[in-house]
Design brief:
heterodimer; A: 123 residues; mainly beta; seven-stranded mixed beta sheet; 11 strands; B: mainly beta; four-stranded antiparallel beta sheet
Chain lengths: 123, 108
């Protein structure tokens, strides 16, 4: 079955860190660009970061640049998001989403989404 | 950054009626790289339309997308009960990609 499954969310204090994981199955993970998209409670969608299949290039929204790091382990079919210096405004459901191939990793629609993992930043 | 403005914010319609949702970009969307998603409460978004007018796999043909440049439209020809949800447009023509704020289609 083609699916994405996020994990690693939880409650963290402002200034803290958290690492999200996204396990992929059912497709050739290493081929595809992947992204993280978040949704604050009751709000719309916000693109966070993208990484290409195997080139190593990564891109970030200005709101997380310098604090978040996207990475992937193609041998484990897993995408990661390391989140440091967390702020209250980072509170959201974080989705991983599958892009495509042969273009910049941000230049894709998302044809497969995980169920999301909730990150709550609060003291 | 390209800002996407969706209208209306809420659309109140009855099953069987036609829904027309608008997405306007603050600048022209390169190559028509515009997608539409449907999201129901507690669920992840689902891709409906990509590249402005191409239906995603498994999407019923009552959903159609059109437009170019900076004006795009999602049309649901006849609303089914399962179509009442929030719809988002998303451009991926330039970095950063952005989403519209959403249109809620509710039962009248």
């Amino acid at each position: 079955e083609v699916q994405l499954l996020e994990s690693g969310g939880g409650l963290v204090q402002p200034g803290g860190s958290l690492r999200l994981s996204c396990a992929a199955s059912g497709f050739t993970f290493s081929t595809y660009a992947m992204s993280w998209v978040r949704q604050a409670p009751g709000k719309g969608l916000e693109w966070v970061s993208a990484i290409c299949g195997s080139c190593g290039s990564a891109y970030y929204a200005d709101s997380v640049k310098g604090r978040f790091t996207i990475s992937r382990d193609n041998s484990k079919n897993t995408l990661y998001l390391q989140m440091n210096s967390l702020r209250a405004e980072d509170t959201a459901v974080y989705y991983c989403a599958k892009g495509g191939v042969d273009r910049a990793p941000w230049a894709w629609y998302f044809d497969l989404w995980g169920r999301g993992t909730l990150v709550t930043v609060s003291s | 950054e390209t800002v996407l403005t969706q209208s209306p914010g809420t659309l109140s319609l009855s099953p069987g009626e036609r829904a027309t949702l608008s997405c306007r970009a603050s600048q022209s969307v390169r190559s028509g790289y515009l997608a539409w998603y449907q999201q129901k409460p507690g669920q992840a978004p689902r891709l409906l339309i990509y590249d402005a007018s191409n239906r995603a796999t498994g999407i019923p043909d009552r959903f159609s997308g059109s437009g170019s440049g900076s004006d795009f439209t999602l049309t649901v020809s006849r609303l089914e009960p399962e179509d009442f949800a929030v719809y988002y447009c998303h451009h991926y023509g330039t970095s950063p990609p952005t989403f519209g704020q959403g249109t809620k289609v509710e039962i009248k």
